[in-house]
């Protein structure tokens, strides 16, 4: 009687770990080049947005490193069981701490970056409406169409004033 077990290549967690380690090496080079392009070669029109994109790229990179180097979740498909087989497991970090770090990076930090980018767009739109008078008047016409039905816009009034002073 033999005690050997036939295990395919895809069922072996060591093969998954080594594949992820190899892909992490490629990922580090590609994401480093992306960060380099964001910092040194972004156009001047992206001056304000560059730092938000850099923040998002750094947190996305940290999440990628957690999944492909430090934790590497190994799923048992018939049931919903996950075993970490990454670098943290090799050095003896408890599974609970690995889970907490994954949850912190995914739920708090990546979502926080997304919220910052969203609020940047909202604040830009609100400031455009508040500062730019012709745009503000158009928005008021859309919101309150009956109030502004017979009014002239302020830009036409300014043009008429300037043109009448030239005469």
> How large a portion of the residues is in β-strands, by DSSP E?
under 5%
Q: What pattern of helices and strands is seen along the backbone?
A: HHEEHHHH
* Gross geometry: elongated
Total helices: the number is 6
Helix proportion of residues, in percent? 55-70%
The overall average pLDDT, rounded, is: 77
Task: Flag low-confidence runs.
Answer: 157-167
User: How large, in whole angstroms, is the Cα Rg?
Assistant: 28 Å
With strands numbered from the N-terminus, the spatial order across the biggest sheet is 1-2
Q: Kindly, what is the distance between the CA atoms of the first and last residues, rounded to a whole number of angstroms?
A: 111 Å
Q: Return the structural class.
A: mainly alpha
How many strands in all? 2
Largest sheet: 2 strands, antiparallel
Describe this structure in words.
The chain is mainly alpha-helical and 167 residues long. Helices cover 69% and strands 5% of the residues. The chain has helices at 13-40, 49-70, 87-91, 95-131, 133-143, 154-166, and strands spanning 73-76, 81-84. It has a two-stranded antiparallel sheet. A hairpin with a 4-residue loop joins strand 1 (73-76) and strand 2. Helix 1 (13-40) runs antiparallel to helix 2 (49-70) and helix 4 (95-131) packs across helix 5. The longest helix is centred in the C-terminal third of the chain and has 37 residues, at 95-131. Keywords: Membrane, Transmembrane, Transmembrane helix. This is Serpentine receptor class gamma. The chain crosses the membrane at residues 21-40, 65-93, 99-131. It comes from Caenorhabditis tropicalis.
């Amino acid at each position: 009687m033999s005690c050997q077990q036939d295990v395919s290549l895809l069922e072996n967690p060591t093969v998954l770990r080594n594949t992820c380690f190899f892909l992490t090496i490629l990922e580090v080079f590609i994401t480093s080049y992306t960060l380099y392009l964001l910092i040194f070669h972004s156009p001047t029109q992206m001056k304000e947005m560059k730092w938000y994109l850099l923040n998002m790229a750094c947190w996305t990179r940290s999440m990628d490193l957690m999944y492909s180097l430090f934790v590497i979740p190994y799923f048992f498909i018939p049931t919903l069981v996950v075993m970490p087989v990454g670098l943290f497991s090799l050095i003896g970090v408890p599974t609970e701490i690995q889970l907490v770090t994954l949850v912190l990076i995914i739920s708090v930090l990546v979502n926080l970056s997304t919220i910052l980018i969203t609020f940047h767009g909202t604040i830009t739109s609100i400031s455009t409406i508040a500062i730019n008078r012709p745009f503000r008047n158009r928005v008021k016409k859309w919101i309150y169409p009956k109030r502004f039905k017979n009014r002239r816009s302020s830009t036409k009034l300014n043009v008429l004033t300037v043109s009448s002073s030239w005469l």
